[in-house]
């Protein structure tokens, strides 16, 4: 492996690969991406593959809104030889309680102020969009047609190939074992394949970002949380949008391949690195999904898996330079929605690192908000 | 062998030629190949193709099949209806 680089990116998920591309396309030479296993082996490849703009904080909503525009033209922009499978079937967020509905109204006001075309609709209108939706007890729903789905494996593959063509090197099956600082600045990264000297290091390790920060003596306010998902056999297209019911802790969508991907959040999930699949999850998600979408009871489950959310205290990302380790940047804390915001997260980070004008104030994602600043408190997380 | 006509993954209709092409492009493990082309993601969960792909990787890298990294074996063992898990049938 090479002995030095201009930029070392730790983490070969969507954030690391997209950031490598955005730096390279802005003219940065000599970038190395270090990945412990294979590309998209962490949270990216285990996510629910949803892309939505219906968020409850301006910060998440802006990143998601602008990322949707990038997904729309991604096959062409990255000259991808496959298809990222971007499907804009919308997101239907259904509400079964008055509290939830009140929150949705506030969220939609924020979305409208940013030009996100979310509609507030009646139960009957929701059923016209998803005919097999159970509307018993449904108060209303919000729907945004331009939300949807993209294939995380192919999006990472597309960024990987585009970045490679620009000269970025990818070192897979390589672990980071230490990071050296001198006079408060990062100087090199130690790996299982040798040391690389670098003055800019980007920590895009998702749930492992805390472990990497500890190597420079910094405690990142972030914790891992297991989320499980399953996929069914493929069937003919019958559900356009991703359906989210926060009340049932459920998300469920049909992919362009025809299979259904779904998951439920477990409020009792401990803060832990466990990624085993559990039997209890299958029963829980099956009950919730067949309550909200009864028709799905006939679908066969072919596989379940789990992954880790990198939870930040306010469910908004952390994009900042580490105090006392200048040159080391954190891009983590995406709290379960890093995939859908990655295209613009990567742009923002690249702009900041290169001293260019940022398309939105990156300071809003800074670490200071956890030490007396104002938290961004996102309400719309499954 | 007719690599264009030899099906390796029967669930997803993946040919030997497609697998060999990905290996030539540098996709190094069964996991990587699976994620790009869906080999092993169908209803049988790779029962047939997993070992066939392992053989191709072993040949390409000149290593014993036993040294090829296996993907995680995930539930369910066979496809089961959601209604069964929900307790409705």
TrEMBL record, chain A:
The keyword Nucleotide-binding does not apply. Residues 7-351 form the FAD dependent oxidoreductase domain. Signal peptide: none annotated. Pfam families: DAO. InterPro entries: FAD-dep_OxRdtase, FAD/NAD-bd_sf. Keywords: Oxidoreductase. This is FAD-binding oxidoreductase. It comes from Desulfosporosinus nitroreducens.
From TrEMBL, chain B:
Residues 6-87 form the SoxA A3 domain. Keywords: Oxidoreductase. InterPro entries: BFD-like_2Fe2S-bd_dom_sf, Metab_Enz_Cyan_OpOx_G3PDH, SoxA_A3. PANTHER family: ANAEROBIC GLYCEROL-3-PHOSPHATE DEHYDROGENASE SUBUNIT B. This is (2Fe-2S)-binding protein. It comes from Desulfosporosinus nitroreducens.
């Amino acid at each position: 492996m090479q002995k030095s680089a201009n930029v070392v990116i730790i983490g070969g998920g969507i954030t690391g690969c997209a950031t490598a591309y955005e730096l390279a396309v802005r003219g940065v030479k000599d970038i190395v991406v270090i990945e412990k296993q294979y590309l998209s082996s962490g949270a990216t490849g285990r996510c629910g593959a949803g892309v939505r703009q219906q968020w409850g904080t301006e910060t998440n909503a802006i990143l998601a809104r602008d990322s949707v525009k990038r997904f729309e033209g991604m096959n062409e922009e990255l000259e991808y030889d496959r298809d990222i499978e971007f499907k804009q079937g919308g997101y239907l967020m259904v509400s079964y309680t008055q509290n939830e509905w009140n929150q949705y109204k506030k969220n939609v006001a924020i979305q409208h102020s940013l030009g996100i075309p979310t509609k507030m609709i009646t139960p009957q209108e929701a059923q016209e969009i998803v005919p097999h939706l159970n509307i018993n007890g449904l108060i209303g729903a919000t729907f945004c047609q331009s939300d949807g789905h993209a294939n995380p494996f192919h999006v990472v593959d597309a960024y990987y190939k585009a970045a490679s063509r620009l000269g970025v090197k990818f070192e897979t099956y390589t672990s980071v074992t230490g990071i050296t600082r001198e006079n408060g600045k990062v100087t090199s990264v130690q790996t299982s394949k040798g040391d690389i000297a670098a003055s800019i290091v980007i920590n895009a390790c998702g749930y492992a970002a805390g472990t990497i920060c500890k190597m420079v003596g910094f405690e990142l306010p972030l914790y891992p949380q297991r989320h499980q998902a399953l996929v069914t056999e493929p069937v003919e297209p019958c559900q356009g949008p991703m359906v989210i019911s926060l009340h049932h802790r459920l998300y469920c969508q049909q992919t362009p391949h025809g299979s259904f991907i779904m998951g439920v959040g477990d409020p009792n999930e401990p803060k832990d690195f466990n990624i085993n699949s559990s039997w209890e999850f299958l029963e829980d998600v099956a009950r919730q999904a067949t309550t909200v979408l009864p028709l799905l009871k006939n679908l066969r489950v072919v596989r379940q898996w789990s992954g880790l959310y990198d939870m930040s205290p306010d469910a908004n990302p952390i994009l900042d330079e580490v105090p006392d380790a200048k040159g080391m940047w954190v891009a983590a804390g995406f709290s379960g929605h890093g995939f859908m915001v990655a295209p613009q997260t990567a742009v923002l980070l690249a702009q900041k690192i290169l001293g260019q004008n940022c398309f939105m104030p990156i300071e809003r994602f800074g670490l200071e908000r956890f030490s007396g600043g104002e938290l961004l408190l996102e309400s719309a997380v499954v | 062998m007719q690599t264009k006509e030899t099906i390796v993954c029967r669930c997803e209709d993946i040919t030997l030629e497609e697998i060999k092409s990905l290996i030539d492009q540098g996709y190094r493990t069964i996991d990587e190949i699976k994620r790009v082309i869906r080999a092993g993601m169908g209803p049988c969960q790779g029962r047939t193709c997993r070992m066939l792909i392992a053989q191709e990787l072993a040949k390409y890298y000149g290593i014993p099949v036993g040294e090829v990294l296996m993907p995680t074996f995930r539930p369910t063992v066979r496809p089961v209806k959601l209604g069964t898990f929900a307790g409705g049938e």
